[in-house]
Amino acid sequence: KATVEMLRRMPKAELHLHIEGTLEPELALRLARRNGVTLPWKDLGTLRQQYEFSNLQSFLDLYYQLMGVLRTADDFRDLMLDYLDRAAADGVRHAEIFFDPQVHMANGISLDTVMDGLIEGLRIGGERHGITGSLIVCIVRDMPVDSAEALLDRIALRVGDLVGIGLDSAEVGYPPSLFTKVFARARRMGLRVVAHAGEEGPADYVGEALDLLRAERIDHGCRAIDDETLVGRLVKARVPLTMCPLSNLRLNVVDDLRDLPIRRYLDAGVVVTVNSDDPAYFGGYIGDNYQALYDIGYTLEDLARCARASITGSFASETRQRALL
Ligand code: ES4
Ligand code: ZN
Q1: Would you place residue 3 in the very low, low, confident or very high pLDDT band (cuts 50, 70, 90)?
Q2: I need a surface site. Which of 13, 182, 310, 313 has the fewest CB within 10 A?
Q3: Whether the Cβ atoms of residue 121 and residue 84 lie closer than 8 Å to each other
């Protein structure tokens, strides 16, 4: 199909991607064997049956359990390389990649093991595909605030290897306001700021992410549509939303892709980007997300606008952005 090729060829950046969410079930089983980690699912068929989710939490339960198979720097390198191979095939030229060190550290893996592996993967993938990438450390919002502060103590030694800090995991009941001080400290360390908000949580959480965390991008932002004033603010301040259609569908944020507010956001002038979130869990990488929007009536012009926004909304240098556009 000519259109698939046109979508694929649009230079794009991926701005909302959890590296642990690229752990395919095959790789999870292989790493479990390699590392002597016992999982409750003995074979691929049984594991595959676990991928039907009712909401964000039911996904997170599987996602955090499978993260336990990631033990060595080589594991993290292999995970990154597999992702970059797939991303490059979808026309991704730059990726800003989330990871959840608090969970790995709770599993007894050091921050250095995680980061050394991911960075080696970025280096090899960069040489292989000409793709650039950077890391965004995520705060797991349903873990104690103390654990986020302890992470920052570790991060302080490696800020040069990070572009930013984000906020992810179970949203409802964990408002951004809990992390005002954590993010203020991260900003003083020189990190750029993004935050998941308005995925399952209310529009108010998007406002808090902007006002209290000083978020420069909002991850998801589906529920911002409920607050007209907030939408106007996103437009005026040109705050990109990193939207993930297949994720929202699979986690029942919406019943149908047509119920996503993307059309209304584009018409209002919001900066919208298209991303894959946790592609190994949600049935598609970034190209599939673009394709799914095309299939329900978004035009090539709409999608080219999103692709362009992903580059200008990235934290890549001006020079790199110009080279990508
Ligand atoms: C996530 Cl889809 C989603 N939402 C919030 N936190 C996450 N961590 C990984 N995937
Ligand atoms: Zn996400």
Answers
A1: confident
A2: 182
A3: yes
Ligand having the closest approach to the CA of 142: 1
The answer to whether residues 226 and 203 touch, using CB atoms and an 8 Å cutoff, is: yes
Q: How does DSSP classify residue 107?
A: T
Q: Name residue 193's beta-bridge partners.
A: 165
Q: Region 280-294: what's the mean pLDDT? A: 97
CA 55–ligand 1 middle distance (angstroms): 11
**Strands, DSSP E only, in 72-151?**
92-99, 132-140
> Which residues lie closer than 8 Å to 134 by C-beta, 6 or more apart?
95, 96, 97, 122, 162, 163, 164, 315, 316
Task: Indicate which atom in ligand 1 lies nearest the CA of residue 168.
Answer: 6
pLDDT (average), residues 31-40: 97
278 labelled ligand-binding? yes
CA distances from 313 to 231, 263, 265, 316, 325 (A): 17, 19, 16, 9, 12
- Kindly tell me if the per-residue pLDDT of 1 is higher than 90: no
Ligand 1 near 56 CB (within 6 A): yes
Q: Which ligand is nearest to the CA of 66?
A: 1
Overall average pLDDT of the 178-184 stretch: 98
pLDDT of 2 reads: 65
User: What mean pLDDT comes out for the span 138-146?
Assistant: 98
Dist. CA 73–CA 90, nearest whole Å: 26
Domains of the chain (ranges plus CATH)? 2-313 (3.20.20.140)
